[in-house]
C-alpha cells in the first residue's frame, strides 16, 4: 500500500510541475507578449452618441445599431479602442439661451468625449465649433404622415386617371380616324362593295363607329368585313385595343395599390395650406434651424408656425415623433432617411414625395483633431468597399415589401408611341390595299368596254363616293327652282 500511494503521489506531482512549466512558457512566448503589448498600446477614444432607431439601440443591456457597426468597422481599420456613452441631455447639439452648446456638440467642446458617432447633421453653425468627417450617410428633409389622415376620397372620374389627358386625346383621335378609314376603304374596295348602284354598303360611318367601339369592349359586332383591305384595318385595330386595354388595366391596378395619388400633401406648400394636420420637428435640431434661417417664404411660414406653438408641436425625441404621427393628426418634419425607416417598419406611415435641404450625417471631432482626417479616409474606404451600403441594407430592412415605394404617374403618350405608330401603318396598308383592289377591277373593266383604265378608275371612285350623283341632284334641284 505504501508503494502504491507513493507512486500516485509522484505522478500527481509530475503533472502539476509540467502544467506550471507550460503556463510559464506561454507567458514568456514572444508572440503572446507582443499581442498583449500592442493591445495595451492602442489609443482609447470616448464616443458620445444618442439613442435613435436604428442608429443606436439598447438590446439585452448592450448597444447595437448602424452607428455601433460603423464604429466597430472604423476601430478595426484605424486600430483604436473606444468607450461609448449616451449623451446626457438627449440632445444633438444646439446653442442654448445662455450661449452654450448642448447635446453631443457640447460634450465634445467640454472634452467629455473625443468624437460623436450618431445621426448628427453637418451644419455651418456646428462646423464653426467642431470638425466633421466626410458624411457617412446622405439625407434631406421630408414629411412623415399617417396614411389614413391624408387619404382623400377618389374623384367621380377616377377611372380616367390611368392615362394622362394627352393619352386620352390621342386615343379618341385614333378611334375616329380608324372608323373613318374603315368607312372609306369599305366604299372603295370592290370586294366589300361590288355593285354601288345595286347593293347597299353596310359599312356606313355610324356602323364603322359601332364596329370600332365593339372592338374596344372586346365584343364582336356586325357588319363583318369581307375585303382584305378592310380586314387589315380591323385586325390592326383589334391588336391596338388589346394592347391598350392591357396597359390600362395594369396602370389602373398600380394606381389602386399605390398611395401617392391619394396624398393631398405632396409638398411643403401643401402642408402649409392645409388645416387638418399639425406639424413640427425635433426641438433644437438642425431641421428646426434650417427653416429658421431659410429665406424661402414657404419655409418661413413653417418656422413661424412651429415657433408660435413650440411647446405643443416640437418633440424631444424621434421615437416620440413617430408615436405622435401614428396616434394623432400630426405630420413630422425631419430627416428623410429616418422617415424611410419609419415607413418601412410601420406600414401605415408614408413619406411625402418632396425632399428639400440635401445634407449628410458626419462624425464630429474636436477642432484641429488628428482623428478628423483619419476618420474621413476610413469612411471613404468603407464606402468604396461597399461596407456602408451593406450596413444601410442591414438596418433599413423593411417589413412592408408588398408596398410600392415608387411614385405612381399617369401613362404618357410617349409610352404608347410604338402602338400608335403600328396603328397608323396598318391604316395606311388598308387604304393602299383598297386602292389596289379598285385598280385591279378597273383594269379588267377597261378591257371589256375598251376604255382607258384611268377613266374607269375615276368613274368607279366617283360612283362609290357618290360625287356625280350629288352634282346631278344639285343640277336637278336648281332646274326645278328655275322652272
From TrEMBL:
Marked site (Interaction with the cone snail toxin Con-ikot-ikot) residue numbers: 292, 381
Transmembrane segments: 168-190, 202-221, 228-250, 415-436
Compartments in which it is found: Postsynaptic cell membrane
GO annotation, cellular component aspect: postsynaptic membrane
The UniProt record lists the keyword Cytoplasm: no
Keyword Cytoplasm in record: no
Keyword tags: Cell membrane, Disulfide bond, Glycoprotein, Ion channel, Ion transport, Ligand-gated ion channel, Membrane, Postsynaptic cell membrane, Receptor, Signal, Synapse, Transmembrane, Transmembrane helix, Transport
Residues binding L-glutamate, per UniProt: 119, 121, 126, 286-287, 335
Residues annotated as domain Ionotropic glutamate receptor L-glutamate and glycine-binding: 54-110
First-listed, main subcellular location of the protein, grouped into a coarse class: membrane
Any GO molecular function: ligand-gated monoatomic ion channel activity
Function statement: Receptor for glutamate that functions as a ligand-gated ion channel in the central nervous system and plays an important role in excitatory synaptic transmission. L-glutamate acts as an excitatory neurotransmitter at many synapses in the central nervous system.
Protein name: Glutamate receptor
Source organism of the structure: Antrostomus carolinensis
